[in-house]
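Chain X:
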Amino acid sequence: MDHQNLGKKIRFLLHTHSKTIQALAEELGVTRDSLREIVDEEAVPTPHLLHRICGVFHVKEDYFGEAVQPRPSEQSGKRPLGISDKTAIGEKTMIAIARRQPRRKLDLMELAARHQALVDCLVAKKVIVLRDYQKRLDALRSKVDQRRQER
C-alpha cells in the first residue's frame, strides 16, 4: 500500500476547496495536531478517516487508491483511532486529546481532592514515597510563607 502521497493529496484537496487544516479537523471530529501530522506525512490515516475525508470533499474513494481499503485488523469491528501503527500517540497528540474535552472550572476543594487521589495512587504504586513527598511539600510551603512575608 502506497502511503507516500496521502498527505500531499489531502493538502491538495484543502487548497482547492479553500479549507484550513483546523476547519477540516473540526468537520471530521479529529484534532488539528493529528490531522497536521497526517498532512505532513508523519502519520498515516486509517481507511475510516480517509473515507470520511472523501465524503467531506465529495471525491471518490479511489482518489486515495488502496489506502481506503480497511486492514484486516480493522475489519474486526474495532473503532479506529484515526492514525495507524506508523506513529505512536505522542505527547502533542495526548495534549490535543485533552484539549478536546470540554473545560470547566474546578473549585479548590475538587482540585485538592484530585491532587490527593493522585498522590495516593502514586504512593500505592510505589512511584513516590510518602515521607519524601511530605518533605517536599513542607519545603514548598515554607517558600510560600517566605514570599508572603517579603511582600
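Chain Y:
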Amino acid sequence: MRLFLFAIFLLLTGLVGFAQNTGSSNSSLPPPSRRFAVLIGVEEYDDHNIPSLTGPSKDVEQMKEVLVKKAGFVADNITVLTSQKPGNKTDKSREPTYANITEVLGDLQPLIQKGDLVLIMFSGHGIDVNGEPILLDQDSRNRGSLNNGNINLLKRTSISLADLNAFISDTKASQVVILLDACRNDPSSSKGADSNPLTSNYEKAFDFDKVNNGIQAYFCYFCWAQSLCK
C-alpha cells in the first residue's frame, strides 16, 4: 500500500506539469477548497458467494490521510465509504452500498465547477462480465458462484464503469484522477492472494473525448499486480 500511495502522490503533483506540457491555461492545481475526493473501500460483501478482502477499508482511510496531509485536500471535501466491522454501530449511509455510492456521486456532481479537481478511488473486487467491466459494491448480489450464479443480477446490483464514465463526463471538472485498486478479474478464483489482472475492457472504459468534456488533465491508475497493491 505504501508504494501505491506514493505513486498516487506523484500523479497528483504531476497534474501541474501535465497541464503545462499540453498547453492548458489551467497550469496548476485548484485551491484546496476546490479539490474533491470519493474514496470507496469494499472488503466485506453481503453476498457470501463473493469472497471478502483484507485491506480496502484501511487503504481508503490511509488515502484520505495522504490527501489531507500531502496533497492539500480539505477533509470535508473527502467522502469515505467503507465496509464496517460486524457488530459495530456505524453510520449506514457511509457503507459502500450501491445506493450510497450512487447517491454520493449524484450529490457531488452539481457542486463541481470548471477548474475543480475530482479524485475517485475504488478498492475492492472488479470483474468483467461479458465485456462489461463492473465494480462490486457491498450489496452486489449473485446468488451462486460466478460460473453458476445470476450474472444479470450481479450487473444490475454493481457499479458499472460506464456509469462512472458518465459521471466524469457530466461534471465540469478540469482535472480528474481515477484510482482502481481492483485486482480481481474473477473474484471467485481466490481471496486476493494471487495476481489476477483486470481485463483490457477496464482500460478501454475511460476512453472518451476528454477535451470536448473540458477535462484538461486526466490520470487513470490501475493497480493490477497484487505485489504492488499491498
